[in-house]
Amino acid sequence: MPEITVIPNARVYEVLLTATQSISHHDPAVQDKSNRLLFNRQKQRLEYQVDAGPANQELLDAICKANPLTGDMAVIGKDLSFPEFTATILVRYFLDIYNPRNNGDGEGLFSGKERYTMLEARFRQAAICAASLRSFWNRLVNAMQVSAHPSEYDQELLTLFSLPRGLQHQVLRSLADDYRSVLALARLWYQVRREPTPQTTLFTEAPEPVVLRFDASSLHAEGGSRIVEIPAISANSIRHQLVREPAWCHLASRLDLYPNDPGKGPVPAGVEAIFYNGGNIEAGAKQPSNPFALANEIRWRYPSLDLLGGVTDSFDLGESRLRVGAWIVCRENAKALAGSPATDLPAARESIFDLVDDESRTRMAGRTGVGQMIYNYESLCTGTQVLCRFTLQPFTPPLTEGALQAALHWWMNEDRSIGGQSARGHGDVAGEWLVRPEGEDPLRAYEAYLETNLQELRQGLVDGTLGTKTKVVS
Q: Does the pLDDT value for residue 29 go beyond 80?
């Protein structure tokens, strides 16, 4: 067992990634029927400048007067809040403009039987990305692949776009959070307006038209912040791609083990799984009588497991000593970047939404003509920068720190990719150090330890004992 030496302070490493190819990174748990994938997103509170004073009462009255509620909408919509009312108007304008195109078949992606499915997903996505109603409309028109609206709608749209920014954020929140009910209301309103004499299906007689009125003095923006889903690189993905997988590849190469076919070489698949993905406890497994002692011995034998943790067939090896953070360098992440050299980069003054690009792919048809499908997805453009911070807990042994250095060096020299779809030309990045403790003594000590104990460490992997006297992995 190596000599016990620890460092009482936290050690911080920062690596800056600069994309040389666009980055594809999507959440597999988020799916819809719109054949479009959003970039992975996380909710974040963003601060903004609140408009001074209330909204203009004349402006609110003009919006309400131009959009009276008729038919069933006179009853269903009379209790709408101003953000809900405005969100419904915007979506109804879209229906008014594009539903009649091509003899009622619509236009672009807003056509055919799936038009409302396409619209629902895309106007929510546009609301998530937009910082204003003007930006929302631009993104929606582009996403639906429709032409510009006719000039007679300029006045109506520009009136909505002139609302105070704080109110616009509330409307965007309604579009993003209540998108299904907003679309249902807009569709009903559109159908009611098509009738020369508004009909009703809920009442024996059509209700009288209603012109809503909102008190401008009560419509102040709700604080100077807004919850927004912004594109994000998963820290767990960075942990795996920059540390866990490279740490295992480095260890295997130093021990003359080549992990090309898991479970087919001298190392059991369960052993490789501990290093590659953390492993799994077997169903119904019983802990040995001394799991704490075994876990400590394994962590000292294999510093990369002390760094990252894992589980054997029957017990946990304990908590990881490594904390990982990953932030796209952009204006929205200014607080997270504070204190890092990355805060002075030009990219730190750009909006994350300016870095998002749309890409399209066609799954080609086979010889029988079956299987072709066009789909598109979001990516981050070439040149996007990502700050990765790796923090070692206080009292981390030098060999464990050496395992981290070895993993990062291996990734920089042998891999240099993040995210997914690398086979389709995504994810290649250049890595450079921003912050790291001086010297590489831990790395040299770790390399020397592996060389000195090669046979013992190799045998512990092959026989599943991980250097103990007990077989802990089958």
A: no
